[in-house]
Design a protein that fits this description.
- Helix content is 33%, strand content 22%.
- It is an alpha/beta fold.
- The chain folds into 2 domains: 72-261, 3-Layer(aba) Sandwich (Rossmann fold); 300-408, Rossmann fold.
- The longest helix is centred in the C-terminal third of the chain and has 22 residues, at 289-310.
């Protein structure tokens, strides 16, 4: 294995979750009698550039297929985050009718709908047919391709050189990170700005968030690694912010290295110093994560077995990719967790990959009244608890497994 950024062959272990199916490849009832593809899920850290990365065993088309089932707009709090982002960027960078905004990984139009409302010209790049179709229904122009240098150059030729590009939760999802980042250096105007949001590796380790590891996540990112990758591919980091999303994320601001220079915020040096203080330049920092993952797995499995012994009924909420990582690493099957509830109709009546746990609508939760409801997308815990507050009417309690097994209320 060579580092996907710098090509180094010096990579140290970070996390080994055995084998698992693609986390967003939900199983239809018709396919239950057929085998599923399982791939090793092994993550290493490059000793040279500090990029944490999965080993590659399949092409990106396997993970981001035409039936991709993650739709951003099903989270009301994420929609609010997107709207707030658009307001803030429009004000900070003086975007108006004369501006052009391009979002890479536009998903179902969750963000660009707010750009469009402001009368700003916008274009989405989204390779998955299912979400691209949903975005088009909102009147958003979508290019249904994977992003990189060739597409960026074509879009510039077509008049889409951008004042702002947005890339939320996609930098970690690309196998060729150099081509991807170089594409932004090509598509930006000399005065343009690119923003990237991604889960922060610092939080992943501090909060034992091993379940955010799955094949679709090719990289697990620190600012230290990202700044180096950007520098090698024509972008300069000039600011960074933290956000609470996905267990704690960074929003990185970058501009063209050959463009109009921007003053670098003190936030950049402060974040790099925080990563240094945590020990992220030392391989010892990465060595203990396997034990953290095993502790979370063992505690969750013990909880479910104890509930079964005590006669307590259990269900889960949110058929999220991170939930699939947890289920498959722990070997959970329907005998311990009989169903998972999800609001997304595209997932309902499907089955969780690997575990084959049925995914149902909220009506089933109300009818069966489980005594414990495990919130799999723990990053949306507050939103989900408020949505399902009624489970307390029958004495139900919420449970989260990460960073440690906790029964709430």
């Amino acid at each position: 294995m060579k580092c996907r950024h710098c090509g180094s062959e010096s990579l140290s272990p970070f996390l080994d979750l055995g084998t698992a199916p693609p986390s967003n490849s939900y199983v239809t009832a018709k396919a239950l009698g057929e085998p599923e593809p399982w791939y090793p899920l092994v993550i290493r850290v490059c000793e040279a550039c500090l990029l944490v990365q999965t080993e590659d065993f399949a092409g990106r088309e396997v993970f981001f297929s035409e039936n991709y089932a993650y739709f951003s707009s099903f989270s009301t709090s994420w929609l609010a985050h997107a709207k707030s982002y658009v307001e803030a960027m429009a004000e900070r960078f003086e975007l108006g009718p004369q501006s052009k905004v391009v979002e890479v990984a536009a998903n179902d139009g969750y963000l660009l709908q707010y750009v469009k409302e402001k009368g700003i010209a916008c274009l989405g790049v989204e390779p998955t047919s299912s979400t691209a179709a949903a975005a088009r229904k909102k009147g958003i122009e979508i290019v249904e391709e994977f992003f990189g240098v060739p597409l960026a150059e074509r879009l510039v030729a077509d008049g889409w050189q951008a004042d702002l590009t947005a890339a939320n939760n996609v930098l970690a999802h690309v196998p060729d990170i150099n081509d991807f980042v170089s594409g932004f250096a090509r598509i930006l105007k000399p005065t343009g700005v690119s923003t990237f949001e991604f889960p922060h590796l610092l939080n992943m380790v501090a909060e034992s968030q091993f379940d955010t590891a799955y094949h679709e996540h090719y990289s697990y990112l620190s600012l230290t690694a990202v700044a180096g990758i950007f520098e090698k591919n024509g972008l300069t980091v000039f600011d960074v912010e933290t956000t609470p999303w996905h267990g704690g994320s960074l929003r990185v601001f970058a501009c063209r290295s050959d463009g109009i220079a921007r003053s670098v915020s003190p936030n950049v040096a402060a974040m790099l110093a925080a990563e240094d203080k945590a020990g992220m330049r030392d391989m010892g920092y990465y060595a203990g994560f396997q034990e953290q993952a095993q502790r979370v797995r063992n505690d969750f499995l013990s909880f479910l077995i104890d509930c079964q012994r005590q006669g307590l009924t259990v269900a889960a909420y949110g058929a999220a990719a991170k939930g699939n990582t947890l289920m498959n690493f722990a070997g959970i099957k329907p005998d311990l967790l009989p169903f998972v509830v999800d609001r997304n109709p595209a997932k309902q009546d499907m089955f969780m990959p690997g575990s084959r746990i049925p995914i149902v609508s909220e009506d089933v939760l109300k009818a069966r009244k489980p005594e414990r409801v495990v919130i799999l997308p723990w990053n949306l815990k507050t939103e989900i608890e408020n949505q399902l507050l009624y489970i307390k009417d029958w004495g139900g309690k919420f449970v989260t497994a990460v960073p440690e097994l906790t029964v709430h209320g």
